[in-house]
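Q: My labmate handed me this sequence with no annotations at all. I'd like to see what the chain might look like in three dimensions before we decide whether it's worth expressing. Could you predict it?
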Amino acid sequence: MFDAFNISSSGMTAQRLRMDIIADNIANADTTRTSDGSTYRRKIPIFQAKEELSFKKRLKATLGESAGGQGVKVINISEDQSPFKLIFNPGHPDANEDGYVTMPNVNIVTEMVDMIDAARAFEANITALNTYKSMAMKAIEIGRG
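A: Here is what I predict for the chain of 145 residues:
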């Protein structure tokens, strides 16, 4: 009965984390030196479908029912390995001997598009949750009558 709530809540949690990572990327778009001395690399969350409990999955398979999904989980936050940008700025403290500064591989436009996508996915999960809640309330009303 509560599978729909669990699925939507896991989706909202994953998208909230995704938006936090995007905000971190935007905040560090000009960070040429992190605490370990390297240039900031764009971070990307990696999602994976949650697996059902094995007994429940086997029971549904035995009964011929669809096992369905159980939501989503974040399995890793990886670093984007795309190349850094080089900008000529000989006065910068992090400039190399040729006057070029290694800038993060963060593209603000890409981050904004990703943020819009994450916000819409979050809203879709809210809509699904509200729809299920409305259906459950109608079922309760029918049961009373």
